[in-house]
Design brief:
With 312 residues, the chain is mainly alpha-helical. The protein is built from ten helices and three strands. The chain has a three-stranded mixed sheet with strand order 2-1-3.
Length: 312
């Protein structure tokens, strides 16, 4: 069939989160507040690390890059979701859908590698403290950052190369508020079983594998920490627990979405909202309230800003 050789669908229609006006209003307030809070909190962390010389260390370098990535996560999901809440016809162009999928997996891959890099940083700091500055040099930090973006790009492009060639000639309704591979592939006018398996293997099993690697790493570090009873060990334990919370909040929704895809389930949509709106905000709050150095540095930034405003 000639229609099967190319896509005739020019846009996709989102079903959104709910048809209830009251719930839509609640979601609008909830999403808007957390989106703005996430943007402000992560921008403040980024600014604080950049301007405070005491925070120019590998751990805070990686944290600043994580905050930058969380700014991207918030910007990919939240504005479109908030804008569509009160629209009767929630649409996105074919190109816009592809772009959203591309950036979701690019940023997801970068964040995955950054979390592994942060786990490695804590392993060296706790298990090999005398060699920390030698191993976690500026060159190593830059290498981690470059590797994160390269892996994220490869992770996203490899899947899109196969998906973008699919014919879309009929159904164009997506039961969600954003585009992603599981629902997008199911709308193709072709047999997509192998492609769905490839996406699951690429995104799901990589997420699951990375999660287990990180958890095993943190358990190993935890055992090392428990062997010490000094104040520095308790500080290391506090920092470690912070990293574990961030890892769970990031990988939990990813693993559920790709290992057990349930496109029509309410739980799937709830986890998507959690991942899109709450996770970037929680990451900034977790790192801020559980890190004294960050809090002290932020107070300095606030005080300098207030003094500048008074002078000007």
């Amino acid at each position: 069939m000639d229609g099967m050789n190319h896509s005739v669908v020019s846009e996709f229609v989102f079903l959104g989160l709910t048809n209830s006006w009251e719930i839509q209003l609640l979601l609008f307030v909830f999403s808007s507040v957390f989106y703005m809070a996430s943007m402000m909190a992560n921008s403040l962390i980024l600014l604080t690390v950049m301007t405070d010389p005491h925070l120019h260390s590998p751990m805070y370098f990686l944290l600043a890059n994580l905050s930058f990535i969380d700014l991207g996560v918030s910007s990919i999901f939240s504005p479109k979701m908030i804008y569509d809440l009160f629209r009767k016809r929630k649409v996105i162009s074919f190109g816009g859908c592809i772009a959203q999928i591309f950036f979701i997996h690019l940023i997801g891959g970068v964040e995955m590698v950054l979390l592994i890099a942060m786990a490695f940083d804590r392993y060296i700091a706790i298990c090999k403290p005398l060699h920390y500055l030698t191993i976690m040099s500026q060159k190593m930090c830059i290498l981690f950052l470059v590797a994160a973006w390269v892996i994220g790009l490869i992770h996203s492009v490899v899947q899109l190369v196969f998906v973008i060639k699919l014919p879309f000639c009929g159904p164009n309704v997506i039961d969600s508020f954003y585009c992603d591979f599981p629902r997008f592939i199911k709308l193709a006018c072709a047999d997509t079983y192998r492609l769905e398996f490839m996406v699951t293997a690429n995104s799901g099993f990589i997420s699951l594998g990375s999660f287990f690697i990180l958890i095993v790493s943190y358990i190993f570090i935890l055992i090392t920490v428990w062997k010490h009873s000094s104040g520095s060990s308790s500080k290391a334990l506090s920092t470690l627990s912070t990293h574990v919370m961030v890892v769970i909040s990031f990988f939990g929704p990813c693993i559920f979405a790709y290992i057990w895809p349930h496109p029509t389930s309410h739980l799937d949509k709830f986890l998507a909202v959690f991942d899109a709106v709450l996770t970037p905000f929680f990451n900034s709050i977790i790192y801020t309230f559980r890190n004294k150095e960050i809090k002290v540095a932020m107070r300095k930034v606030f005080s300098q800003f207030i003094i500048y405003r008074r002078i000007s």
